[in-house]
Amino acid sequence: xxxxxxxxxxxxxxxxxxxxxxxxxxxxxxxxxxxxxxxxxxxxxxxxxxxxxxxxxxxxxxxxxxxxxxxxxxxxxxxxxxxxxxxxxxxxxxxxxxxxxxxxxxxxxxxxxxxxxxxxxxxxxxxxxxxxxxxxxxxxxxxxxxxxxxxxxxxxxxxxxxxxxxxxxxxxxxxxxxxxxxxxxxxxxxxxxxxxxxxxxxxxxxxxxxxxxxxxxxxxxxxxxxxxxxxxxxxxxxxxxxxxxxxxxxxxxxxxxxxxxxxxxxxxxxxxxxxxxxxxxxxxxxxxxxxxxxxxxxxxxxxxxxxxxxxxxxxxxxxxxxxxxxx
Amino acid sequence: xxxxxxxxxxxxxxxxxxxxxxxxxxxxxxxxxxxxxxxxxxxxxxxxxxxxxxxxxxxxxxxxxxxxxxxxxxxxxxxxxxxxxxxxxxxxxxxxxxxxxxxxxxxxxxxxxxxxxxxxxxxxxxxxxxxxxxxxxxxxxxxxxxxxxxxxxxxxxxxxxxxxxxxxxxxxxxxxxxxxxx
Lengths: 327, 182
Ligand code: SF4
Description:
A: 4-stranded mixed β-sheet, B: alpha+beta, 4-stranded mixed β-sheet, two-stranded antiparallel ribbon, binds iron/sulfur cluster, CRISPR-associated endonuclease Cas1 (chain A), CRISPR-assoc_Cas1 (chain A), CRISPR-assoc_Cas1_C (chain A), EC 3.1.-.- (chain A)
């Protein structure tokens, strides 16, 4: 099974026969190409067109992060799986306002439902989150009544704001969260932004293995230059995968003040901090459980792909999309 | 039957691929999905295995011939008769293999070529001789029509659990669903 490779050091990426060669000051690493699905590039990495052609030919995605660890963008090789049938179905669901709204509602409802489930688990552990839970109970039925994508976004925004307001209760004073994105102004924002970009890119890599077009999202505005379908699906998985991961890191005392650097207005993760999050993230995606309908053991990375299958079946008119439910 | 007696007929409107016919014999849903270019997850081990087998088995005798919608696995001359061989891993889906091979033979017949076939299962050391009997031809023609109609349907036939599912690359796609909490 090919796996993502995370590159923290700086150096040169090249090709030698069927291997990817990563040359850094200290050493030369050879990665057999069939073992690599994606390359995450955090350091200053030089590469040339020949290398990009090689990556494209082998269907390897490249994800670029700047020196602050902010996601810059991905190299998404030309589609190797194309189905005109499915592309038309996807476009049709985007162009028809009724169908688009229906899908957008499903993503928002899925995300809010998982937030609710996550908070219920926290409440069971004795955390005082009744206020947010009540708000979520109130907002959830409104999702089905929202008449536009804009309304849905506003609903989602309200829920998230209240939810983030509860992080102080969940994680303690040091980790109270007031969302700030560009740049993140404190450690928890830096962690959250980084964690979310790992989810966006992991989803993008799974979309590459399907016939879906990542540029056509339903909740997030389709944009011919940017990927948006992965942002839609991410709504559903942020609470169970990213948020829970951050909770674990904070509660186990694994993230420390030393993992963050300050520059100007912004706070970002040091290399050690990024390594820590990436390691936990890989563990999360590789963890397996018994899938209730497949009755087979599947990983959470596969779960992301399964979500896309459900979406494909929705677009094909087979089964309405039911978002993944956190358990 | 001499060459002159072979009734030539125009090829059907759009060539179906013989592979689709093979899938159809196993599972109509699989044929529909493949027919709409919805190939399954490419990393699936079984697919890789199948490809490897096609590339390595009987390498020496192998000749490839391309006809519209199909690429014959192997074509050799044995005296005068053409022999079309189809190599498969397991004989478990023999009926489907028979349909696919019959489809090749019918396609050749439509071009005015008489041929016989062979189903080969190298892993099981089995070779079966296949003739395009009137019975097989009727079954192939029937399947051809049914497949054509199936491919026109706007959605695939629903997934039903059959023995082939457990080894099928579409398994996850077909059977993933969100189960309500118990
Ligand atoms: S998993 Fe079963 S139903 Fe689905 S395509 Fe394969 S054989 Fe057909």
